[in-house]
User: What shape does this take?
Amino acid sequence: MKSVIFIAPPASGKGTQSEILKNLGYLHISTGDMLREEINKETSLGLEIKEILAKGNLVNDEIVNKLIENKLKNIAGPFILDGYPRTLEQAEYLNNLFNSLDIYNYEVIYLDISLEEALKRALGRLTCSCGASYNKYYDELKPQVDGICDKCGKTLKTRDDDNEESFRIRFKTFKENTEPIKNYYEKMSKLHIVSAMEDSSKIADRIKEILK
Ligand code: AMP
Assistant: This one.
C-alpha cells in the first residue's frame, strides 16, 4: 500500500479515514496531535502554541517542519500525513525531505467538503483521550451514553478550537493556503480529489482504491 498525504479542511473526516487506514497497518502522523501533545506537556513552547491554536492560526513552518522531519527519519512502512503540509513552503520542504529519504511511493488526497457541512461536524465533535471520536449531531456517530466513550468509558471532550468563530477562521485559512499546494501536487500528478460529503465507508473505499 502507498503512503498518503491528506490535504483536508478541518472536520472533513480525515481523522476517521486515518483510523480506518491505521487498522490496515498505516502509521498516523498528525501535526495537530503532535502540537496538542506539546501543549499538554505545558512547556513554554507548548503555551506559545496553545495561544496560536486557540485563535485558529497556523503554527510557524520551522516548528512543524522539525516535528515532521523527526518522525519521517525513523519510519518503516506506509504512513498517513494528516494536517501537513498546510503551506506551499511546507510542501516544498517535504518534497526535499522525501527526496533525501528516498520516499516516492505516496499519493496526495484532497478531501472536498462545504463550509456548512464541515461546521456542523466540528460543532458536534467529541473526542476521547484513547483516540476514539464521536459526533453528537449524527445518530450513527453518537456515543451510547451521552458524553462517555464507548471504548474505554472515559469522559469525552470537545476541542478548544472547535468553536464557531475559531472554526470559520481555520476553514478560511485552510482554503487560502491549500490552493497553491493543490496546484503543486497536481503538477506532480500526485493529486486525487475525493468528495468528503458521502458516508465514511464509501470515502474509505475510494481512498483504498487510490492507495492500492
Ligand atoms: P488539526 O488537528 O490538523 O486540525 O490542527 C489543529 C491546529 O494545529 C491548526 O489549526 C493549526 O493551528 C495547527 N497546525 C496543525 N498542523 C499544522 C501545520 N502543518 N502547520 C501549521 N500549523 C499547524
User: Anything to note?
Assistant: The longest helix spans residues 164-187. The chain has a mean pLDDT of 93.
